[in-house]
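Please, structure for the following, as tokens.
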Amino acid sequence: MSTISIATADEVIDLLREDLAAIEREFSRQSDSSVALITDIATYLIAGGGKRIRPLLLLLSAKALGCTTHSRIRLGAVVEMLHTATLVHDDIIDEADTRRGRPSSNTTWGNSKCVLAGDWLYMQAFHNALEERNFKVLDHLISLTQQMVEGELLQMEKLGRLINEEEYFDLIYRKTACLFKVSMQLGAAITHADEEIESNLGEYGRNLGLAFQIVDDVLDLTAAEDILGKPVASDLREGKATLAVIHALERGTGADREAIRTVLADRSFVHVSHPQILEILRRHGSLDYAMDTACAYAEAARLSLAVLPESEAKRALLWVPGFVTSRDR
């Protein structure tokens, strides 16, 4: 591993400020439709903010490989548009009322209109990606979309059921880590990097995405609602068993397992309370286990960068895993 220093948050912001602002403008431009309702929904979603970590990864991947063309801006907006489309559909499927501390789009406009708006965002993302005239870019995006849809369908099949760690990691790869992986690979695709570099950047994205989702799942169980921007323990209420819960199920007493099974089956805390579940998870070290696993994936992501030459972009990529594992929302 290189001895290159890890960037600070301020250095990363300074490095990417102009490009991220350009991506916001490009996202807004790409989301402009002749149908006012689509533009209204897209504008609302853009204003909701978010971490923009996927376009950030694409920018850093491209910068680390010397890209200075508009492709990095266009595709940065494309990956954020795809991510936004998945959030619209997720909120409809999960019957979510809030997203990032605001009413979800489906609460404001209704499910039917938002399904179609999400579809439009998907197609618009591909329309803009096509401007690259790069088959590798399209191959990555098509494979990504298939994986994400398959992940959503698999998760729906498993709601309320007990799953093992292998099934959990397959789900979170498809639903989250695959987009992180592709965001990194697109940086290689637009710079025509060799297969070894693209593979290592993809591994960075995959490992980082797994860490990101594990942390998300822990925060869903432990964070305060005003920090999280949505109701706490939403996963359990939706019948989803995440890593800490799976760990406790494997190590808990009969009574512990029955309490967790009850919540997953009821999809509510009517018979077993959220504090009771947290007590079980803490007693078995399950939350710590999940966070330790996230940190291991984050470190694996850092190790994947050894093939890159030293640069400010590489220093920033070394910073991202620490940000992912230390965030509070």
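The longest strand covers residues 98-99. Strands lie at 98-99, 102-103.
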